[in-house]
Amino acid sequence: MSTRIATLSPNPAIDETARVSGFTAGRVNRVEWERCDAGGKGVNVASFLADAGLPVVTTGLSGSANAEPFVELFALYTGMRPTDGQIRRASAYARC
Predict the structure, then answer these.
(1) Is there a smaller number of Cβ atoms within 10 Å at the N or the C end of the chain?
(2) What is d(CA 69, CA 4) in angstroms, rounded to the nearest whole number?
(3) Distance CA 37, CA 18 (A)
């Protein structure tokens, strides 16, 4: 029997990151690139452990309406319990 690490993700998020070069307040600013990643404390820990080659599964609740980033990141997604609605989004903008 192999040991597996489990993380609990009761409130996962989709982390949105965008880069805006030369940001100027009060002006039109164009996004250079953007990305969406599965996130939240339990998900981030599971991702780190999986990258380190450890057997891990994450469990918790996830909205079924926008679960794609979680499905893409993890074969571990099977531990998540789908619920109605969407997973919360957390946005960050990098000014360069």
Answers:
(1) N
(2) 23
(3) 12
